[in-house]
């Protein structure tokens, strides 16, 4: 997979094997949702 664009799906909990880079564009005021998205990116594949 070369690119993936999502609006809200990544807040629900998803694992994407072999993901090495993630970019969050946070444009809303809900801190809980932002924390969820950041948490998923912290689980990136280290290889």
Folded structure, characterized:
The protein has 47 residues and is mostly helical. It has one domain (9-41). The chain has one helix at 31-41. The two termini are 16 Å apart.
> What's the β-strand tally?
0
Runs with pLDDT <50, length 5+? none
Distance between the termini: 16 Å
- Main sheet summary: none
String of helices and strands: H
Radius of gyration, in angstroms, nearest whole number:
11 Å
Number of helices: 1
Instruction: Please tell me the total number of domains.
Output: 1
Structural class: mainly alpha
Described by the principal axes of the CA atoms, the overall outline is globular
Overall residue-averaged pLDDT value: 71
Strand content is under 5%
Helix content: 10-25%
Concise synopsis of the structure shown:
The chain has 47 residues and is an all-alpha fold.
Topology diagram in text:
Blueprint: H1 31-41
Entry keywords:
47 residues; mainly alpha
